[in-house]
Q: What sequence folds into this?
């Protein structure tokens, strides 16, 4: 089961869950994914070992995709 | 794709198009500049104080003022460096539990324990060992003799503290050079100068990061 989560004021919110075999749930997740990117969120896939990748498309086998807000110098 | 590494570029770099991408050479040059700057305060003022007293003992009060300048100004810079780690913004205790869970999932066992105890997430990367806080980060390059202090935060200040750390950690993992470029460089100096001004709870994290940087 893959998950799309957004870091927000609640800690985090699960926006979508999908499996590789379930096209309908994946389509909903893709729709939600692009909607959040349009709202200014940045999608990240943490790959472990100190590496993460910014995503512009939602991979079907992503595992966990995290949406974050931009950062800035303080 | 990244100019240097071929990896993705942090999108936030678009906010600071005038900045050159931070690299090892920039960090070394910055460290040298900070050393010269510190010496420029730490040597002339005490020397002037000594000269004044030798020339005219009655100028003792002025000599004291010179000594104070030579001591206070480097202290203020180091204080600014340590301040990047101070907890800032709302604590959001209700949502912090969930945020802490997500941050814990992003960390291996030892960094997770360290973060839980000190509030700082340790991350090994190409420039050295990072300590990531809620609104800033420290970088200890290999050898552990220096520490760079960066002021950087998420644009949503209302997030729970662990989410703020997770934001910075994910950005750092995506593009370390970009992260260091977006962040504002606040200070560079000897770790002991920063350590004694850090909140006591956080000091073990700097000790652990220095040890890791020495071994790197």
A:
């Amino acid at each position: 089961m893959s998950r799309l989560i957004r870091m927000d004021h609640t800690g985090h919110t699960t926006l979508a869950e999908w499996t590789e075999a379930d096209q309908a749930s994946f389509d909903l997740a893709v729709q939600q994914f692009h909607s959040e990117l349009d709202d200014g969120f940045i999608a990240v896939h943490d790959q472990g070992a100190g590496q993460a990748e910014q995503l512009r498309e939602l991979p079907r086998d992503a595992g966990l995709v995290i949406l974050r807000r931009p950062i800035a110098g303080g | 794709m990244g100019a240097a590494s071929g990896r993705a570029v942090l999108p936030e770099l678009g906010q600071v198009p005038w900045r050159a991408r931070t690299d090892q050479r920039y960090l070394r040059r910055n460290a040298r500049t900070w050393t010269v700057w510190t010496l420029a305060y730490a040597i002339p003022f005490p020397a002037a104080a000594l000269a004044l007293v030798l020339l005219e003992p009655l100028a003792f009060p002025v000599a004291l003022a010179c000594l104070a300048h030579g001591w206070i100004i480097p202290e203020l810079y180091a204080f600014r460096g340590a301040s990047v780690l101070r907890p800032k913004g709302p604590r959001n205790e209700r949502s912090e539990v969930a945020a802490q869970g997500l941050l814990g999932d992003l960390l291996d066992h030892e960094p997770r324990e360290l973060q839980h105890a000190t509030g700082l997430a340790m991350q090994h990367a190409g420039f050295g060992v990072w300590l990531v806080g809620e609104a800033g980060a420290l970088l200890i390059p290999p050898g552990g003799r220096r520490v760079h202090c960066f002021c950087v935060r998420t644009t949503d200040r209302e997030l729970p503290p662990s989410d703020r750390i997770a934001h910075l950690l994910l950005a750092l993992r995506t593009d370390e050079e970009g992260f260091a470029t977006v962040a504002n460089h606040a200070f560079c100096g000897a770790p002991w100068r920063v350590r004694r001004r850090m909140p006591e709870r956080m000091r073990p994290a700097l000790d652990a990061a220095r040890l890791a940087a020495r071994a790197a």
Remarks:
- The two ends of chain B are 28 Å apart (CA to CA).
- The first strand of chain B starts at residue 121 and ends at 125.
